[in-house]
Amino acid sequence: MISTAPNNDAFDPRLLRDAFGCFATGVTIVTSQSPGGERVGLTANSFTSVSLDPPLLLFCPATGASALPVLRQSGRFAINILDLDGQVVADRFTRKDIDRFGEHDWQDWDGVPVLASAKAAFACTLHADHDGGDHRIIVGRVTRLALDKAREPLLYLHGRYRRVHVG
Question: Model's pTM, two decimal places?
Fold first, then answer.
């Protein structure tokens, strides 16, 4: 049976979260670096393409995300789309008690850290920053990209990592 909620703004947070979780997404690591060299990053599944001309994308970090001030200050960031082997990286970037950039190979794309094993990566400049309730809507203009067509993407659905099954 389908769970329903009243037609108002007072949705049960768990029901809303579960309903949002029904939409399969890819998994990304968003990275940035301060002018002083501090590398920051976070795991995000709220990523989408916006425009081909100009080349724009967006992601939506929580307003309290620790990486957000550095990203805003530098005005540059990378979106790293993870492949099937990227679950370990995704989990690493949800933790605050470890070196998130340890144990993986990173490339420097003009001062922005990019995961060497990413399925796809986009270096961006900050194009727009909008209010999105308890999240921000960060729009980036793509300045560089890489794609490995041979790698399979890591998915997230119903609160768990998944893989594409084509049958």
Answer: 0.90
